[in-house]
Amino acid sequence: MFGTWAYKISKAEYARKLFMQTDLFQKVDIVRMMPHNLGPRVSGLSLSFENGDSYRGHRAVVNPAFRRSWPSHLFQTPMMELMDVLERESAKPVDVLLWFRRGTLDVLGHIIMSFDFRALRDPNNKKRAMYDSLLEAMLHPLYNMFPWLDLKLVWCGRKRAQSFANLKKFHRFIEKTIEEKRLKLLATGTLGETERDNSDLLTLMIEAHEHTKVHGAYDEKGKLLPSMTTEELRNNTIIFFVAGHDATAYGMNHMLMELALNPDVQQWARDKVISVIGDAPDAFPTDEQLAELSDLDMIVKESLRKNSVVSDVRRVLTEPVTLGKYTLPKGSWVMVDLWAMQHNPEYYPNPDKFIPERFASSARENGHPNVPFTWAPFSEGSRKCIGHKFALLTQRIMLAHLVHRFVWRLPAGSPFLTKPRTSTSGLISPIGLELEFESRHK
Ligand code: HEM
Description:
By secondary structure, this protein is an alpha+beta fold.
């Protein structure tokens, strides 16, 4: 930020302070800083940008939606569709980012609000196109570098004006969905345990929201927290898409790339999956089988270590703080450089090597340091990614399906065989990754 000190840290002991002392290291409130800018207005005031009691008020409504199990059948339709699309596209190298972004949007639409974006089946679907163009406008580098352009030029640039119109439409679409679900819930009454396990996130948030409207929300000391408005409920629904969509798709892309570069690990995962669910072409893991496949998380975790999707976690200091021999002034920006921390050879020997066994339960006995707070692709502490358990499970399920259905490799001459190309800041993704998929059941 211009005119402000900014510091990057990559030592676990300093990162720990940032993760744990949330009143000292606060979220940068870009919504209030740049109220006219399209980017922050997409999700508006939501838990992602709030601090203190407002933040805790948001969590009171959002937490119950995430404290649940995720039955595997919730994933079945979009997952099978993704596999079918990959098979259909497999005559030539597949543009992995394109299809995993679409597949992830379908999964999230389903899980967040039981909505079918039809991103895989019908890429021209209007809602999918509206969402994608909104995201593109939100991440536009020019408007992020010079946010005041949205103030001055919105009526000069037609495309940008169209994006603002899209934003209104998207907000109305989510508001309408909330209202329909709210009425349905009021008609149904209280949800039973099974209904809750099978509900989408939005229904569970509406249930908690209705409860807090009547009974209030309190912190652990019994203090009344600010109540969430209906607009904020809408914003929190949107933040799940914004925060979860690309991050999950990019995470999958990194993992596919690592397994193409490490075919022995890919085969290990395949053997493991077949040993648990068999080799029938249409096998889909039950919840018990998914639990048995927890070893696949070693691959997921190592991929997220080596290729942190989020490059850094940023905070602003509310008071001066001393880290080692440095005193950082109030108001400065402090960033945990997740990539640097997860590549520090003190914490992860041979950091550039893909070694899933680092995350085996026996790893500590075998000399891997496993220092707390050094693996933080979802951040840590009370502001750790609220979707982290869901994201890990999604990746486990996707990985299980992929190894079961395909063998994949990098095409001859792929630049990824020598030097993977990735974007460098914000969300990190492989650029232009193409893979050859060979169906195993043809
Ligand atoms: C591989 C996938 C994902 C990665 C790597 C990831 C990573 C992160 C990180 C590093 C943060 C902390 C950012 C910060 O403090 O500045 C975060 C926050 C957040 N993530 Fe994720 N995320 C993923 C998936 C998801 C999913 C699937 C959802 C929702 C369904 C989600 C929702 C959120 C939300 C709402 C926050 C803000 C939480 C708060 O401030 O309390 N994320 N994520």
